[in-house]
Design a protein that fits this description.
single chain; 0% strand; globular
């Protein structure tokens, strides 16, 4: 394959080991974050008329005209800069076709696609109970500064989420679905499952260990430590969907199903069309019954997904 005539980087990374690729991924993440921040500030300043100090404190003053749109734009570019730009550029530097390098090749099998979504929804009672347990985390006095910082991170994330999930119209719903569900699901799966997980497999030589290391990084990097356990479990589940299928489409489907359902249910709840949110699933009087049903059905569903994945790979 011919190489670019003018290369602004070292020789192509197609023969490089996982360590060198990981270093380049970190460099590209820093570049992506910087570009996203620059573009967000430029749009906020030039189009919406906010000064840089005003942009820095915008999350604390979301009722200003145009503030929510600027925050949404910033979130969109941040997601693209952190999750999409680095893996795409890394694959480009390896001189590998984007679809192949990011495991997007081939048409997804619809049975597996739908099954991945259903299995994600089936876990919600377990995930919500884990989240409730995780929220009981208490720090000793010696670690109180760390605990206070974690609580502050959690409060900031919750505040932004509440802002983005305030949807007064179908247009707001579609906007939130794009920003809170589609882009994060696609970007995070491409970064963590299609890029980091194969690196960890090559580093450790143990696919199962690599899946859970990736799940740990996936949960940790959100900096929402009072939701670490449920996100860690979700990361492991998504990792196995990718490992068994060899395609990013199925973990993307499950990830989007989780985020998208939350956005949809919040929209319906805000407009008083339903009395609950996804956070209520697996809680209340029938919590343990819901969890028991999920525990009984989930292993069979995972077994069927793996078996169907093997069948699809053999036939392709």
């Amino acid at each position: 394959m011919p190489r670019n005539r003018f290369q602004l980087y070292p020789p192509a990374l197609q023969d490089a080991g996982p360590t060198r690729r990981f270093i380049w991924l970190l460099i590209l993440c820093l570049i992506g974050i910087s570009l996203a921040s620059f573009i967000s500030v430029a749009i906020g300043s030039l189009i919406f008329g906010f000064s840089v100090p005003e942009l820095a404190g915008l999350a604390n003053n979301p009722n200003q005209p145009g503030a929510l749109r600027v925050l949404q734009i910033s979130q969109l570019f941040s997601s693209c800069g952190i999750f999409l730009f680095p893996p795409v550029m890394l694959v480009y530097l390896q001189e590998v076709p984007i679809r192949k390098g990011l495991y997007l090749s081939g048409k997804p099998n619809m049975i597996l696609f739908i099954l991945a979504m259903l299995l994600m929804w089936l876990q919600l009672p377990i995930i919500n109970q884990l989240a409730a347990f995780n929220n009981l985390l208490v720090f000793p006095d010696a670690l109180k500064p760390i605990g206070d910082w974690m609580l502050a991170q959690e409060a900031q994330a919750a505040k932004l989420t509440e802002l983005f999930l305030t949807m007064s119209s179908p247009v707001d719903f579609i906007s939130s679905l794009l920003i809170m569900a589609f882009i994060p699901a696609l970007g995070e799966e491409i970064l963590f499952r299609a890029t980091l997980q194969p690196m960890f497999v090559k580093w450790t030589g143990k696919p199962h260990l690599a899946i859970w290391i990736t799940a740990f990084v996936f949960s940790f990097i959100h900096f929402q430590f009072f939701g670490f356990l449920p996100r860690f479990l979700i990361g492991g589940f998504l990792g196995y969907l990718f490992y068994w299928s060899g395609s990013i489409w199925y973990p993307f489907a499950a990830h989007f199903a989780n985020n998208g359902l939350a956005v949809l249910v919040y929209f319906l709840h805000q407009h008083k069309l339903i009395p609950f949110t996804t956070d209520n699933l697996g809680t209340g009087d029938f919590a343990y019954l819901h969890i028991l049903i999920a525990i009984l059905i989930l292993p069979f569903g995972l077994w069927f997904f793996k078996r169907k994945s093997d069948s699809v790979k053999l036939s392709s």
